[in-house]
Structure formats: C-alpha cells, structure tokens
Amino acid sequence: MQRSQRIVFASFLVLFAVVAVLLSVSAIQLSYQLDDGTGTMQHAVFEPAVVSTAIASVVGILQLGFLIWNLVSEPPVFAWWIALGLTVVACGWTIFMLFQPTPTF
Question: How many CB atoms lie within 10 A of CB 30?
C-alpha cells in the first residue's frame, strides 16, 4: 500500500474513533425536571455512556499512535487488522450503548 493511502486510511480510523467518543460523551448526562412545582433541574449519569466513553477514548489514543506509526514507517499487515478491529469494537460498543434503555424519572 502506498504511503498516502496508509495515511488516509489511518486518518479515517482516527475519525471514526473521535466520532465514537463524541457520541458517547453526549449521552453521559441526563437532565430532568422535578414534578414538585419548584421547577428545579436534576442531573443523572448514564453509566453505559461512561464505559463507552472510556473505551472509545482509549481506542482513539491508540489510533493516533497508529497514525503516527504510519507517518514514520510502514507497519506490518497484522497491525492494520488490529487497528481495524479496535475501531469496530469502539464504534460497536457506542452503537450498543445508544440502544440501551435510559432511566426514567
């Protein structure tokens, strides 16, 4: 594979990891209003989103390292399969988290 193709594909892997992080982070905080007439807002944490954010963040950091590795030299083929697998895990876990039922208040 040419150097330019390796850099573009590794950049796409980083992009997918960043999107997974952003989707996970956006689902962490849940806000709701109490029905006691005071109108105070309450906040809760959606725990599956916290786990998803941690997984996607670690994968994002690893993908940045993989991009740097592609900028410096040519990684072996098995490294591409590992990087692709990690990205699939991060994106898959984020999609799984998005379909989890959120608590009702």
Answer: 15
The residue type of 31 is: S
Looking up tokens 């594979």, which residue turns up? Answer: 1
pLDDT digits (tens, 9 = 90+) for 49-90: 999 999 999 999 999 999 999 999 999 999 999 999 999 999
Asked if 98 contacts 52 with a C-beta cutoff of 8 angstroms, the reply is no
* Burial zone of 66 (CB within 10 Å; 0-12 exposed, 13-18 middle, 19+ buried): buried
Structure tokens at 54: 């941690």
Rounded Cα distance between 87 and 12, Å, is 10
- CB burial of residue 17 (10 Å; 0-12, 13-18, 19+): buried
Query: Does the predicted TM-score (pTM) go above 0.85?
Result: no
Picking from 96, 97, 100, 64, the residue whose alpha carbon sits closest to that of residue 83 is 64
